[in-house]
Specification:
Helix content is about 40%, strand content about 20%. The chain is of the alpha/beta class.
């Protein structure tokens, strides 16, 4: 059974994304979790990055058929997805999917070249480069800024890029700017450019700024309602095994990073450094 806190986080995840008006091309996806070629195997999908990293211990286990892809369009059966995609699918499938658990909390960080940003107030007058316009990063950033008395339209200049790599490139060109990036890309960027540093943790800023006890949510586990109803035992077994896997990933980052690298989710070296900041739950 899911805890009350997890249920609250699920509601926050769906509300956060739906209220932000998120949309996206999800491809022709019709099945979210189904029995695989073996009658005992459950097909499970995830996107490369934090939403898949928590499953590391299960990736080579019997009984599961995993698909790890770089984008939603590459997956047919899928269970671990970004929260904004879950909200989109909830609407597009006429509420035919359910959130089983939150698997990743906030992964957003503000990075800079120098050492000028010590608090959110220091963002005033800055240019902030970010990716994710119309999605969680924009909504979260605007909410944190407003909660701290900063007008996102007047007090800062937010420039959105189509990819994370473009944000890093922009920071190289504009030494006074700040970039909003997610893990594990933050770790990748810092490993490639030793001049970059994490200035502020947007996830902590969110928690400190909001008075409702909410947390930023990045990823969730979803499943087709019919599958959940028809295979309740398998779903419960998976959720128990998944919890054990999450505990393993967070407690033995070196071993988990090896598995994550072997399955080409992200590079082993990046995973080992990034796991503590990926908010895998």
């Amino acid at each position: 059974m899911l805890s009350k806190m997890k249920r609250k986080l699920m509601i926050c995840a769906m509300a956060l994304c739906i209220c932000a008006g998120l949309t996206g091309n999800t491809g022709e996806v019709s099945v979210w979790a189904s029995e695989g070629s073996s009658s005992d195997a459950v097909r499970i999908g995830a996107l490369k990055g934090p939403t898949a990293m928590g499953m590391a211990q299960l990736l080579d286990e019997d009984g599961y058929d995993f698909t790890i892809a770089a984008s939603p369009d590459e997956i047919v059966p899928m269970v671990a997805v970004p929260a904004n995609l879950a909200a989109t699918l909830y609407q597009k499938t006429d509420k035919d999917v359910s959130v089983l658990a939150v698997n990743t909390l906030g992964v957003l960080y503000l990075v800079e070249n120098g050492d000028s940003v010590k608090s959110v107030e220091d963002l005033k007058g800055k240019t902030i480069y970010a990716s994710g316009k119309g999605a969680t990063p924009e909504y979260a950033l605007n909410s944190v800024l407003k909660a701290n008395g900063i007008d996102p339209e007047k007090d800062v200049t937010v420039e959105f890029k189509s990819e994370h790599a473009e944000v890093v490139s922009a920071l190289v060109q504009d030494q006074t700017a700040v970039g909003l990036l997610p893990q594990p890309f933050v770790t990748t960027a810092l490993m490639k450019n030793d001049k970059l540093k994490v200035a502020l943790d947007l996830n902590k800023l969110w928690e400190d700024s909001m008075d409702d006890g909410s947390k930023l949510v990045t990823g969730v586990v979803i499943a087709n309602n019919e599958f959940v109803q028809d295979h309740a035992d398998k779903v419960n077994d998976f959720m128990d095994a998944y919890k054990a896997s999450v505990d393993f990933v967070n407690s033995d980052t070196e071993a988990a990073a090896q598995i994550i690298g072997d399955h080409d989710i992200i590079a082993k070296e990046v995973a080992q450094k990034a796991i503590p900041d990926c908010s895998i739950v």
